[in-house]
TrEMBL record:
InterPro entries: B-phosphoglucomutase_hydrolase, Beta-PGM-like, HAD-like_sf, HAD-SF_hydro_IA, HAD_sf, PGP-like_dom2. This is Beta-phosphoglucomutase. It comes from Streptomyces shenzhenensis. Keywords: Carbohydrate metabolism, Isomerase, Magnesium, Metal-binding, Phosphoprotein. Its EC number is 5.4.2.6. It holds the Pfam family Hydrolase. The lineage of its organism: Bacteria, Bacillati, Actinomycetota, Actinomycetes, Kitasatosporales. It catalyses: beta-D-glucose 1-phosphate = beta-D-glucose 6-phosphate.
Amino acid sequence: MRKLGLPEVVRACLFDMDGVLTKTAEVHDKAWKETFDEFLRRREGPGFRPFDAVADYDEYVDGRPRADGVRAFLASRGIDLPEGDDDSPPELDTVHGLGNRKNALLLEKIRTEGVEAYPGSVRYVEAVRAAGLSTAVVSSSANAHDVLTSAGLQALFDVRIDGVVAAERRLPGKPHPDTFLAAAHDLGVEPGAAAVFEDALAGMDAGRSGHFGYVVGVNRAGQADALREHGADIVVGDLVELLEAGM
């Protein structure tokens, strides 16, 4: 392994955004909880069981495209809503309506609170680029451009495959590997020559099923064992640990 903590075969690095590069996982979590709790309170009354900001978030929505997250969580509660349309208004109780409600809350939080990058991740991406490796962001978020811009990271990546690009190309989201495969293709490398960096279990599944050269699990939520079980070759608490391990 070189000083980046990666096998020599790796020529490109594919980074998830929320929770790996930026401290937005918590913002997403809050927006999901507000959205689902308000919906459940109206549907089931004051005795409703709230959205669990850790267990439900990790299991059903983290790393998934927005509508998939809505479907997965509602199915866990035995709730089946109409799909609605991509542009369903946020006040409409459909899959896309709830997703759009969550997105409106998220964008408001980004505007009012801003977005912070993990310093260790920035240092690692800069080291990767200095070593001549290509870089991509692979995110389920349709707001990746706004988040990267707010965090000052947009210049660090050669390719961005996000929720907008996935919709345009009709790519299924994580846990399917298609968005990561598209990033590798756009960078001109085979999957076996690319490393995936993820903090979500759905992202681990995508890295494993896509047969990528190396899969790095970033343990931001105390789920190191689960990350390994879902396909991580190595688990770190912060990407800077890879630089320190490679020295």
